[in-house]
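Need tokens for this chain, all 676 residues.
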Amino acid sequence: LNVNGGTLDLNGNTQAFRRLTQFTSSVYANGSGSVTNSSTSAATLIVAQNDAGANFSGAISGGNINFEKQGLNTLTLVAAGNLGNGALSVRGGALVLRDDATLTTTGAVAMHFGQLTLDNSGISRVAGSRIGTGALSLTGGTLSFLAAAGSDAQTVGAVTIQGGANVINNSLFAGGPASGSSSLLTLASLTRGSAVQSTVNFTHTGGNLGGPIGSLVNSGNTQILNQGSNPQIALTSAPSMTNGIIGGWAVVNGADWAVYRSTVDPITGAFGVGNMGFSFNSQSPFGAYSANAITAGIATDNISTAASTADITTRTINSWAYRNSGNTSTTANEIKMRSLDQLVSISTGGLLVNNGSAAVNFLNGRMTAGTSANSSMYVFANTTAQFLNRFENNGGGMVHLVKSGPGSVTLRVEPRITFDASFAASGAVDTLGANSTGQSGVPGLVVGMSLAGAAMNVASGSIITQVNSGTRVTFSANASSATATDADQTFRAPVTQVLGNQTLSTSAATVTVPTGTIVYPGMTVTAAAGSTGVLAASTKVLSVSGTTVTLSANPTTAGAATLLFGTVGDQTSAGVALTAGSNTFSVAANSIGLNVGQVVTVTGGTGTLPTDTTITAYDQSTGLVTLSANALTSGTPATMNYGALTERSIITSTTASSTTARVLSSVGMFVGQPIQ
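Here are the structure tokens for all 676 residues:
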């Protein structure tokens, strides 16, 4: 829609446009036509700004107009307008109100993963409010105020955080205190809606958020921070604090917990929203972190950690922040609980990671939030964080995990244990006493787990074949030599099937496994250290019939053995003929490693398959493969690709009012697994 002059009257209708702009060259207020609504009925104007950003210098005003800006780009308005009691919505991208621009309304203002910028830094400023007194709701949205030179202020209505990661920003003119400017953004109130999985990050550019604005006289005649050139965010209705912070869901610049000060500090002049730990004139107007380390934290503590810490035991704290933003090392820091049974409960759910260039790894133990059902653990990551422990529900019920911030977060339960002794020509390793896990035992270790790296002269990747006792495990590989030097290592989740007490014979390529054992064709098979029976190199599972497993080759030495059945990885083979409209093809009989659920793709040559085609049946004796979809075109590809086996099957039938279903294969299924 190009409104070069004149007026577009919506007349109570709903109208959507791809862009809102003008051909005229004027970028000043009222430099083009206007949009209005002469009807007594509300009208709706939708601008889907999906291409390049645009400016509109005309007014949107008159009657009740619901205005909705959509799309990924920016729409900038510069002329005064009003929406009556119509709603203002920003769904994606940014809506900028600059120069004379206003869209005042008594109706609702909503930011749905979009940004509303109140820009006083242009040609002219607007005092009071550019959007009126309507209530604001943010769902993954951003509310930003760009202040004018000098002393500036802007006021908005009550703000409700409805969901997602939200930002409320106040920026000084020219981005710094050198401009001599100050800025005050006032919100009527700040609350959260029913969505407890929401967060807010209070940000600023220039000065110190919550620092003094203007002059300050005090008995100590102390220095004024930045000579009063600071941004403030004030709340007419002050929020309640939880042990000194707004909540685990509210941070300042992603680096500290947000705190609200409802009165001006007489020494520093601090007021409004500020960060815990802020200090000036020997004062901490927004409170300080606890002096206790995490190893000694108590229920009211807001804990600050800045270095690797070990031997953390069960405790309850208010919040926890890893704060070392100046860290230039690339070596990850480690936070390690004493053992997997230790529990750190964070009352507010606030867990913040801000460690400069280094990741932070949380090892062992368990973490939870709050005491009631539907509590949330808020992980704000400015830097990479790995949680190799377990998040779990609290005693009252379900706990939500909410991640926000730019840093990546990895969740993977991998216990880390310190060992005391290993033995020559043996796979046994001991863990004893206070220098190992802090208590006797190897909690959390199970058969099938593997070493993530070498430890105690036992090779990386070695698999636990036996948990001998509370203080000893046995690995699939022997230690190269004995050692009594303590060493710790992380364990990977079990992906290897370990079967002990097997008997190998050189005259038969079969073994008998217990009923219910998950073994399928293509698995690699090796014998653990300590076995007297020996398998041929590169032995695999050829076929499975009941409890009888046929191997690809006879053992080379008879005797007792502990067998390790590995996974089926990605495989390739020469292309085979595909027929358009047919969901079958043939491979050589007794081909190893093809299983129901594997994804099949093709590369090169001719003949194509749809995306996400899987094997639904495989007759090993004939080599006939049945797929989940028909071939798109006929021909012979250069290569057939078979994805690693995952927990995938096809539901073939269901019965009304029944909780059971029939599947083509139960390979890889387990109790508690979700079904899509």
